[in-house]
Write a structure and sequence with these properties.
Layout: H1 31-39, H2 43-46, E1 56-62, H3 66-79, E2 84-89, E3 102-105, H4 112-121, E4 127-132, E5 135-136, H5 143-152, E6 156-165, E7 168-170, E8 174-179, E9 182-187, E10 193-194, E11 200-204, E12 211-214, H6 215-220, H7 232-242, E13 246-257, H8 264-270, H9 273-283, E14 288-291, H10 294-297, E15 299-300, E16 310-313, H11 320-329, H12 345-357, H13 362-368, E17 376-378, H14 382-394, E18 401-406, H15 409-418, H16 424-444, E19 449-453, H17 454-461, H18 472-475, H19 479-489
Parallel strand pairs: 1-2, 1-4, 2-3, 6-13, 9-14, 16-17, 16-18, 18-19
Antiparallel strand pairs: 4-12, 5-13, 6-7, 6-12, 7-15, 8-9, 10-11, 11-13
Helix pairs in contact: 1-19, 14-16, 15-16
């Protein structure tokens, strides 16, 4: 069965709230503003229609943390006002829930496994989003991407996301390996896959308890209720051994995990998980579990670059050198870019070799992308080779933004002629073919992208200096051109 990710306009139903005009309809069509939106990752904010929730249940387990639960539901409503929310509570005391939330009062301390199974029994939708009450939705908690993966990959029964916790981002895409009596947990190194709409993911054996399940998988794999806690590894190892469903992880969906505010009672009950984990391993013929330290280390949350990495696409003589150098001046890393054209020497060499011999050096290309972030790479040969690079970019933690800089083809051809490289007829023929290839590359790019017109930007704000690259460094550090680029980059002046 395929699951379609359907979207509707967000509508607030409270009588004191009104339907608001989407921000995107109030944004100028000025290409500079649109570029600023793309560069700052604001696409979701500007145009964020809520997911149609008729096929998803937001299932929450809780145990005596009412304030956490209240905050989670509020954050869900902020992003998905129409969400169908069900709470399974096995706490010592009943927890009040917000209006519109379905509440399942379970036997006291029946356990986390029993609470999840209660959510399964109450499920009347095709999908269930698994949550715990100490989670909190953020702008990056985009459930549409989970649906995109399930719609694309019918073998995946559960897709999990990443978690922000105590100042770090945990991906926790885990592969499980048995050796003698030990279960080994290692970071998944499997190939990155890409959906047609650009969502990246990889298969693995286990994720954190945050993600989207198909109902069919939940019916086949219930949690072991005699394990109140410590059930996680046992559950996913059973899924792996049954080999009926795949598990996947995407780092493009993230949620916050707040481990503060745990009462003494909560900590005492939670502290039983170690002995129960050991019991779960014993039942599966194992005596211990060893986890790679990388799984718990994660990445510093504030160390993630707020600026996207950028690939500049454009036919030669269309202004790409000037654009690249302005981005360098605004804070993007130049890496091995040359002074004359702002082109990556390494990437240019790879493209030249590929166009010469017809064999793309994927390993060499992968190494070439080990760069200090955020970076900009530009080579006019991308119009002929970019489809070969997409697999390389898909392996990155976050695929880059593509900027296609377009310029009037006659002006580009005239530039070739002025430099004495081609006749007018030959120049027009070459530029015409290259523009067709650039358009094809842009259309096939599966991730964030923006097309900009050289003439419109230049006419609007004098963004490009008509002098060539010899003077660009001087002009990019002061004056209106620098101010525009700095504004786009969010750089303090």
């Amino acid at each position: 069965m395929r699951f379609q990710s359907r979207r509707v306009t967000r509508v607030r139903k409270n009588e004191n709230e009104v339907r608001s005009t989407p921000v995107s309809s109030r944004v100028s069509e000025n290409p500079l503003i649109l570029l600023a939106v793309k560069l700052e990752g604001g696409l979701k904010t500007l145009n964020s229609p809520a997911l149609r929730l008729s096929q998803v249940t937001f299932g929450i387990t809780c145990f005596d943390r009412p304030e956490h639960l209240k905050r989670l539901v509020q954050s869900i409503r902020m992003f998905y006002p129409e969400a169908r929310v069900v709470v399974a509570d096995n706490g010592l005391r009943s927890t009040p829930v917000p209006f519109g939330v379905r509440y399942l009062r379970l036997p006291v301390d029946c356990g986390l496994s029993a609470a999840r199974n209660a959510l399964i029994d109450a499920l009347d939708t095709d999908l269930m989003l698994l949550l715990e009450e100490d989670f909190q939705f953020a702008d990056e908690t985009c459930i549409e991407k989970f649906l995109d993966i399930l719609d694309h990959d019918e073998e995946v029964g559960f897709v999990g996301g990443s978690v922000y916790q105590e100042g770090r981002k945990l991906e926790y895409a885990v592969d499980l390996h048995r050796f003698r009596d030990t279960l080994h947990l290692e970071p998944s190194r499997r190939d990155t896959r890409v959906t047609p709409t650009g969502t990246t993911y990889r298969h693995c054996d286990m994720c954190l308890n945050f993600g989207l399940f198909r109902r069919e998988m939940l019916r086949e794999h219930r949690w072991p209720e005699d394990l109140k806690l410590g059930e996680h590894a046992a559950y996913f190892e059973a899924v792996r051994e049954a080999a009926r469903w795949r598990v996947a992880h995407t780092d493009q969906v993230r949620i916050r995990h707040d481990r503060t505010g745990r009462s003494e009672t909560y900590r005492r009950h939670r502290g039983r998980s170690s002995s129960m984990l050991q019991e779960g391993l014993r039942r599966r013929g194992l005596s211990r579990m060893r986890a790679n330290p990388e799984l718990a280390s994660g990445l510093p949350e504030n160390g993630l670059s707020p600026k996207p990495n950028i690939v500049v696409l454009g036919v030669g003589h269309s202004g790409t050198s000037i654009l690249s150098k302005m981005l360098f001046a605004a804070g993007w890393e130049a890496g091995d870019a040359d002074d004359e054209f702002g082109e990556s020497v390494g990437i240019r060499s790879i493209n030249q070799e590929f166009l010469k011999v017809g064999q793309f050096p994927a390993g060499q290309a992968t190494v070439a992308m080990f760069r200090k972030e955020p970076w900009v790479v530009k080579d006019p040969r991308f119009v002929l080779t970019l489809e070969r690079w997409r697999h390389v970019f898909a392996q990155l933690p976050q695929p880059p933004l593509l900027i296609w800089l377009r310029r009037d083809s006659k002006a580009v051809a005239a530039s070739y002629v002025r430099r004495g490289r081609l006749t007018q007829e030959r120049a027009e023929e070459l530029v015409g073919r290259r523009y067709i290839r650039a358009e094809e590359q842009y259309a096939a790019w599966p991730w964030r992208k923006v097309a900009l017109d050289y003439e419109k930007i230049r006419a609007a704000v004098g963004l490009f200096d008509t002098r060539r690259s010899a003077s660009i460094q001087e002009d990019a550090t002061s004056g209106p051109m620098f101010e525009v680029v700095a504004a786009l980059a969010g750089k303090e002046m």
